[in-house]
Each structure stands twice: as C-alpha cells, then as structure tokens.
C-alpha cells in the first residue's frame, strides 16, 4: 500500500473541484462570472464558489441562481446571510487514487452517448448513485454494459479539475449485482 502524497496544488484543486473544473477543462459549460459559476441545469446541479472569503460571494450567488432556487454548496460551514435558508446538510467523502489503476479489457463494455440517455437516466433512477442529468454524459466518457439489449450497469467521468477525474454514476441494476460489473 502506498502513502498518499499530494502536492499543495492537488490539495487546492481537490478542495474545490467544481470551481477548478468550471474554470479549467469544463470552462465551456460554465455559466457565471469571476466569483460564482455553475453548470447548465441539464448538465449538472453543481454551483461553484471561487472563495467563501470574498464578501460579495452571496450576492453573486443570488444573481446567478435567481430567487427561490435550491442549490447544493460545499466548502463552507458558516451560516448563510439573511434571506437564505439551509434545507439540509451532510458530509461528503472524497477518495483519491494516486497509483496507476490496474485496467483490463472487458468485452461487454460499450461507450454510451446521447442515444443512451433515457436508459442511463432510468438506471440512475433505480440506483440513486448521485446527480445525473440528461446532458451529464457530455462531461466525460461514460461506459455501460448491456445484456439482452438492456443497460444493466454504467459508470463515467464527471468533474475534471486539471489532472484529476471524478468517477461518477456508478450504477448496477439490482438484478445484476454481485458480478463485479461496477469494477
């Protein structure tokens, strides 16, 4: 087992991956400005803040998302200013692989695209692996496994802060679990 060794740059990127994706590899998806950015709603629900230390950030956030919007935010434990309401909180876990992944061919794996979106959304609905929208597949490569024409497993790449890739939407139909398909 190796010891995890990240550079200060890596730590900065991974502490705010949505921001670094939206100002880097996913800049073409970015809506917003210098303080707050988001993905189009049909791509991903993520809103990113450059720094919570800037006193203008809440005003910029309100301008970006509009009134009565529900947004998921990360990176601050400070209470929001008046006019904002916390609807829920939770802790996230970020796992990082720093060694080269051992890969092996898997003949059943196929690349998924726009034509597969209805089945991808249905598989996500049955499994609830996290946010997945009709255009999420545009953020990276998604692969799937079909049996008898039915999409039974999938996974893909979502956030891409420079030099990193988030594995997303890992989902296996309940009828096909226990076969190692998610790996």
From TrEMBL:
Alphabetized Pfam families for the sequence: Acetyltransf_1 (PF00583)
Molecular functions (GO terms): acyltransferase activity
InterPro entries: Acyl_CoA_acyltransferase, GNAT_dom
CDD domains membership: NAT_SF (cd04301)
Protein name: GNAT family N-acetyltransferase
Keywords from the named record: Acyltransferase, Transferase
EC number of the protein: 2.3.1.-
Source species taxonomy: Bacteria, Bacillati, Actinomycetota, Actinomycetes, Micrococcales
EC top class named in words: transferase
Domain N-acetyltransferase: 96-183
